[in-house]
Amino acid sequence: MKKLYRPKIRVVFSVIVLFLICLASCKSKIKKEHIRIKKTARVEHLPFFNEKTFTPHWITPGSDQEKAFHKIPDFSLTNQLGETITQKTFDEKIVVVDFFFTSCPGICLKMTNNMIKIQEEFKDDLELLILSHSVTPSIDSVSVLKDYASKYGIIDNKWHLVTGDREEIYSLGRDHYFVENDLGEPKNLDDFLHTENFLLIDKNKHIRGIYNGLNRSSIAQLIVDIKALKKESI
């Protein structure tokens, strides 16, 4: 009886092992498929934005409506190398934009660390640049920005940290990038500008996305949207 019983046990055991291997394989395939889906764009074309509520406008890229849509105006600021930075610096570039200050003890460091992820993801991509505006330009001189860049591994000419005229920077942030969320509360130059938002700007200077610079899933979506925008411009 024992000689007959042991083979049966081995057969049952082999069937169970085979079942567990198949189950693990199926789970692995499902997980990989889930990851693949998450890396695709949400829509055929990213929306366009032109005001503080960030209501999406579904416009066909290259259309007359797109050409007449809100654009970020020209500016003249100075980066960590002491170079003058204007819109010409970003001609034919996709740009990720934010506002920060080097002495920020809280969220700015988290924002910088998340922006570093963007820098690393597109480090060798000549189409993608990063632009960070100091909201304390009287403190964040060229030398201070240079030290900050060195401290956090910011790549010169890939990621521009800029200082300049406070009024110009605040006007860009509030009137053109629409970065502050406290709608309904008028602000003037004396009111401090600070936001955790990242913005995605296309090659034609249009706002194509807004993202929480402190949120991991939002940063992941930004990376996906940058890749979608690159395909759109081909």
Automatic annotation (TrEMBL):
Keywords: Copper
PROSITE patterns: THIOREDOXIN_2
Organism domain of life: Bacteria
Gene3D superfamilies: Glutaredoxin
Entries under InterPro entries matching the protein: SCO1/SenC (IPR003782), Thioredoxin-like_sf (IPR036249), Thioredoxin_domain (IPR013766)
Family: Belongs to the SCO1/2 family.
Protein name per its UniProtKB record: SCO family protein
Organism, scientific name: Croceitalea rosinachiae
